[in-house]
Write a structure and sequence with these properties.
- By secondary structure, this protein is mainly β.
- The protein is built from eight helices and 55 strands.
- The strands form 13 sheets. It has a 22-stranded antiparallel beta barrel. Strands 16-23-24-19-20 form a five-stranded mixed β-sheet, with no helix packed on it. Strands 8, 11, 14 and 15 form a four-stranded mixed β-sheet that branches.
- The radius of gyration is 30 Å and the shape is globular.
């Protein structure tokens, strides 16, 4: 049955794009256009053709008779016929490419070809691509030399390198949301060439087209989504808090843990199987407010990329996904900032030059204030509240043309507290958790072809509980702490070997310092005085290499190998991880892709709830608890539609997971940290290992540009787990297995002053375990010679009779959110009022279920936490 289902998925992956776009012409030249009957210059006609076809022309002004006037009849013709009319009687020829039309003088090209044939020298053009006005590096800019049909994309630091034959070279720099730039140079030696791209006006629908980015149809990468930061800011949001993780959850193949949760479940994997990276530093717990908000401030971010499969060799350490985020570097030319205040928190971002065009900084901060408001109404000596804060900081400095330094960090904390102090009595409870990261990066150019980045990284996550009760004749204290701290060194190299081969290679090494539990308990009445501090240190390392190989203009490959190593308890784990992806461009607008990736994971997450809550425990692989591993295959089609303004992606995947872990039956966070419980404080005895399967079909229809943007996503999937000691060893649906998952996201620039947005999500209900029957039995105290129910908490306990694991489906989840932004340009800033409604039609989505007794009958009751919730925020950008 499973294999038949997978075959059906693969059939859909192939058939949908072809059937939907069978009317596309076999080549760009066969597209029909109609220019009104008129006499116009060649330059004007070319602009009209670009507007109708949405395909840019690339040419040298000196080569074309741009001011020559041509008379057109106004008839509907093919693009090829129009070009024949325009250039009749000249030596101008044209070449259709997937992303542009190249115009050139045949005579001049023949002369240049003769000259070039006598030359054996090749030279390299390299440099950085930045945003004009701020000098912020731009990631993923396409740098293309049309005459040689060669191109490359700028890396995470805006650097590019292109080696070409000696000649007069025209370079095209293009990027979504920015005006393309053409630079012409005489390439007779290695040259440094920096480009500064101008942002497009927000409402210029004709100008902002998908041609100005590296399209999915042009790469080998499968299962990857780039999420524009501006789109995160446009989404309707709970409490007005724009949330990166909640936007990621709306992508195909990604499920959320529950109502308003920021947990990520990617292609059947758990939240521990996602590598979340901020400026090269691993973030272990990405949540505020017990999982309702993520800790990433979108105002401080430059890029957001999610990879769900087909992982390049440079990524490792997790099974299911990589969420990579890069912070802004800070404006190098002038001071700027953003500020906002909402129902839940306030935030501020400032950036500017430390030394113009050489050094800059960025600072951001965010904090809730409900605890401050609440405590102002409480009497002295008492306190009740919750708060979180986070801060981002980044400094960068150009040491010279070949060296750059970056220092960045994140610091955040959540705290819930209750305080009741009066005279000599004290009753206090605190629980706190938080992340801290710091990254020092050094960019160095060994040559114009070899770029290197070396990072020194610190990352830490901590969780603590503190209880202190004291009266004159009694005192009880309890302190608990757990966490993980990483110290890492990694180096990544980009080697631009030729126009056909682009190599990436490097290494990483991380010292993990785990504190599974540190407990101190004291009670003066029972004379309990217990203290235990457990720590574990492990070393994780890897080396990798990958080759981006252009076999032909239609066939692209990325082959790589990662060798990972983990040292734990005198045991060495060595694992090779082959990676492969390939793309075949069977038309200018459509590409068939496939990928395979083997992954290993050496750190485990134990969570009783499974939604990325603060009480999650990170633990290492050991002799008893082996590393997790996964193998994933993907096959899909990427297709550009509607003059390349819309992208359609259909992808099928199959993933097999081994040695995944969960709590054994009856174990949880409390038993793991109860020093008096059987097997207490021994986490290895409280977990079991098993296997998992996930397969499905993902559909994405996305429009990133112009006034109307958004996407339609649909996932059809099935995820199962199997553990020998759970569910009698039989397979069962995972808690967050969702057969159907739908998301519809829309944003519309109605005018320069108003922007509308809406999102609708639907998902099959979570699978949970409910008892089939219940019965009452007396409490049993093994330390007592007789059972005395009256003395033992009422005497009877209700015991559930359970059937299969996850035998009940919660109702399907769905919700509609809407938002509107009112924008105005002030003299010194851009002001935005952001109004949004969460759950517009007040859908009563259950958060959890409980069994209650009503008139002698047991009833299943659902708890709903979020209904119709309006929110607002006031924002300034200056």
């Amino acid at each position: 049955m499973r294999h038949s289902f997978l075959c059906f998925l693969l059939f859909l992956a192939f058939s949908l794009p072809f059937s939907g776009r069978a009317q596309i012409a076999a080549s760009l030249g066969e597209q029909t256009v109609k220019i009104p009957a008129k006499t116009a210059t060649v330059e004007a006609i070319l602009k009209e053709l670009e507007a109708q076809t949405n395909i840019p022309f690339s040419y040298s002004n000196e080569a074309l008779p741009l001011q020559k006037k041509i008379t057109l009849t106004g008839r509907e013709q093919t693009l090829d016929a129009v070009l024949h009319t325009v250039f009749k009687g000249t030596s101008i020829a044209w070449l259709y490419r997937s992303d542009q039309i190249l115009l050139f003088d045949k005579k001049s090209s023949a002369q240049n070809a003769t000259k070039t044939a006598t030359k054996t020298n090749k030279y390299t053009i390299s440099g950085y691509v930045r945003e004009a006005g701020s000098s912020e590096p731009l990631i993923g800019v396409t740098v293309y030399a049309p005459q040689f049909k060669a191109g490359i994309s700028s890396n995470n630091y805006g650097f590019y390198s292109l080696t070409l034959p000696a000649d007069s070279v025209l370079l095209q720099f293009s990027y979504v949301g920015y005006k393309p730039q053409f630079l012409k140079i005489n390439l007779d030696q290695d040259q440094a060439l920096n480009a500064f791209l101008q942002p497009e006006a927000a409402l210029q629908e004709v100008e902002i087209v998908a041609e100005k980015e590296v399209r999915s149809t042009q790469t080998t990468q499968t299962s990857q989504v780039n999420i524009p930061v501006e789109m995160v800011k446009d989404m309707p949001a709970l409490f007005g808090e724009k949330d990166v993780i909640k936007t990621v959850q709306m992508m195909p193949g990604v499920q959320k843990g529950g109502e308003a949760s920021t947990g990520l479940y990617v292609r059947g994997g758990g939240p521990d199987q996602n590598l979340i990276v901020l400026d090269d530093a691993t973030v272990y717990n990405a949540n505020h407010v017990l999982g309702y908000l993520s800790l990433f401030n979108g105002d401080a971010l430059k890029s957001i990329d999610l990879t769900k499969g087909g992982f390049p060799a440079r990524y490792g350490g997790r099974l299911s996904s990589v969420l990579e985020m890069n912070m802004k570097e800070g404006n190098r030319e002038e001071f700027a900032g953003e500020a906002g205040i909402g129902l839940f928190s306030s935030r501020l971002v400032v950036e500017g030059p430390l030394k113009k065009n050489k050094a800059s900084f960025l600072l951001s901060a965010r904090r809730t204030y409900w605890d401050l408001l609440l405590n102002s109404f409480l009497r002295e000596g008492t306190g009740l509240g919750y708060f979180f804060y986070d801060a981002n900081a980044k400094l960068n400095y150009d040491l010279g043309p070949k060296d750059k330094l970056y220092l960045s960090g994140y610091f955040g904390r959540d705290k819930f507290y209750v305080k009741l102090n009066e005279a000599e009595n004290r009753d206090q409870f605190n629980t706190a958790w938080g992340n801290a990261t710091a990254t020092l990066r050094w960019n160095h150019l060994f040559s114009d072809r070899l770029f290197a980045n070396t990072s020194f990284i610190f990352s830490q996550y901590r969780f603590a509980i503190d209880y202190d009760f004291k009266i004159p004749d009694h005192q009880t204290t309890f302190l608990y702490y757990s966490g993980i701290r990483d110290l890492s060194l990694k180096s990544d190299f980009d080697y631009y070997l030729s126009t056909a081969h682009f190599l990436k290679f490097g290494f990483m090494s991380t010292n993990h310092y785990f504190t599974p539990n540190s407990v101190r308990a004291f009670d003066s009445s029972t004379e309990v005085n217990f203290e235990k501090h457990e720590t574990v240190s492990n070393l994780e390392s890897a080396v990798y290499i990958e080759d981006h190989f252009t076999v032909t203009p239609k066939i692209l490959l990325n082959a790589g190998l990662r060798l990972s190593h983990f040292f734990s308890e005198d045991k060495h784990y060595f694992n090779p991880e082959p990676r492969f992806s390939a793309a075949y461009r069977f038309s200018p607008n459509a590409t068939l892709k496939t990928s395979y990736a083997a992954m290993h994971q050496y750190v485990h997450l134990l969570s009783s709830i499974g939604t990325g809550q603060s009480i999650d425990l990170w633990l290492p692989a050991t002799n008893k608890v082996k590393p997790q591993q996964a193998h994933q295959l993907a096959l899909g089609v990427a297709h550009d539609l509607f003059k390349r303004k819309v992208l359609l992606e259909v992808e099928a995947y199959y993933k097999k997971m081994d040695r995944i872990i969960t709590y054994r039956e009856g174990a949880n966070f409390l038993t793991l940290n109860d020093p008096l419980a059987k097997n207490g404080m021994d986490w290895e005895s409280n977990v079991v290992s098993g296997q998992g399967w996930s397969y499905g079909l993902e559909f994405l229809l996305q429009k990133k540009t112009s006034r109307f943007t958004g996407w339609l996503g649909y996932t059809l999937s099935h995820t199962q787990h199997q553990f020998d000691s759970i569910n009698d060893g039989r397979k069962f649906d995972a808690r967050y297995d969702r057969r159907h998952d739908v998301s519809v996201i829309m944003a519309y620039d109605a005018s320069e002053k108003i922007k509308l947005s809406a999102s609708w999500v639907y998902g099959t209900g979570n699978a949970i375990t409910l008892p089939l029957a219940e019965y009452s039995v007396p409490y049993h105290n093994p330390d007592s010679e007789a059972i005395t129910p009256e003395e033992l908490l009422g005497g009877n306990a209700v015991i559930g009779e359970y059937g299969a694991r996850n035998n009940y489906r919660m109702p399907d989840y769905h919700r509609l959110d809407v938002g509107i932004q009112f924008r105005k340009k002030l003299k010194w800033a851009d002001r935005t009022w952001d109004l949004s409604i969460y759950n517009l039609y007040n859908r009563r989505n259950p958060f959890f279920y409980t069994l209650k007794t009503n008139n002698g009958k047991r009833e299943l009751r659902q708890t709903v936490i979020f209904g119709f919730i309006p929110s607002f925020s006031y924002n300034l950008k200056f």
